[in-house]
Predict the 3D structure of the following.
Amino acid sequence: MTPQQFFLIIFARRHLAASIFVLVAATGAAITMLMPKVYTATTSMVVDVKSDPIAGALLPTVGTPTYMATQTEIISSERTAIGVVRLLRVDQNPQLVAQWKEATNGTTPLENYFARLLRSGMTVSPARGSNIINLSYSGRDPKFATTVANAYTQAYIDLLIDMRVDPARQYSAWFDERLKVLRANLEKAQAKLSAYQREKGIVASDERVDQETTRLNALEAQLAAIQGERVDTSSRQRSSGSELSPDVQQNPIIVSLKGELAKSEARLIETSGTMGKNHPVRMQLEGQIAGLKEQLEKEMRRISGGAATATRTTAMKETELRQLIEEQKKQVLALRETRDEITVLNKDVESAQRSYESVAQRMSQLSLEAQSEQANVRVLSPAIEPSEPSRPNIPRFLAASLVGGILVGILAALGLEFLDRRVRDKTDLAVDGVPVFGVIGPIRDKYTFRQRLDLLRAFVANHRQRRAAKRRALLLRDEANRVGSAP
């Protein structure tokens, strides 16, 4: 269908299209005027994305699209609507209770019945790109719509608090029982450690082990010194019987005796040339030399016996030190085993202490959460009683009625045209293989503007003449009728 055909059809069916347009527009206007007025109250809430003031941890999921969608579903839930019913105290209104009984015969709980009714007028829409949630409620009474919108906000906040507090209370009871068990374990571990310390007589195991280890090191150092001394005395004992022995050579008595012996021998040699063997002086010198030699041998034997005694004494000291060292080693090993056992017991006590403190800290946090009356949602702007209805929107509805009337009128004209086809253009006669030889009609291309204006004037004048002639004919007919009816 070409635009020319479309306009020709609409022009030809203009009376039908106009009638339908008027009918549809009038019907739409009447419905708009008769529709009940609906008022909408809106409140806004903001979701706090800061850290939890009790746990001190960040809330990474708060403010995300998933979280906001979850909050929207919570607001739209039946549980929130039941909270609104409780806040409005519907069960205390006799008329509403009678309405509930008449509608459900008491089969549906009152709170659930009115909750479903309230949910039908409530809409929730989170603001895009922000943490703000808009809640709207529509009703015929503006005051009631405002009350319900604010009650929905309060019920939602109360529900969030309950969803946070109830699990905290349940976990708190479980942690309380667990805390008692951990306290008993800690007391048991501490008692076991104290009993072991009393049994072993240990106050500070680390200091005692250090002292005994130091003593063991000192005994081992003494043993090393005694072993060196023993080697020295053994060497002295082996060489003490000869004149080359250091003890003999360094002994002052031996040195003195050797000096006197040398002097006596020198005097004997001097007197041997002048005195005979039986000379009293020579015999005295020989006797003196013999006495000095005997005394020297005695002194050397004495020195040799002292070295042997020193060697035996050193060996005894070494033996005693070895025994002391063995006993000290056993004592140190026993103390180390005791210290290891105490370390294990201390670790048991520390582990029990850490577990107890961790659970106690969590218990304290849950106790605070169970007592908390704050939610992470704040009312940004409460609902205010609307002064104008939100529905119906009279200008919009009237415009829609007009547009709908136009569309329905056009569709009716087109439908009637398709049911009763007329030839209005040469394209309506177009048949495949059949040419069009001519078209009867005005040739508009040969008329100028002035000629068309003259034709229009002639048409208007002719139209006026025909109307005047028609009027004269009516007058003459009326006159004739009047004359014929006269007596």
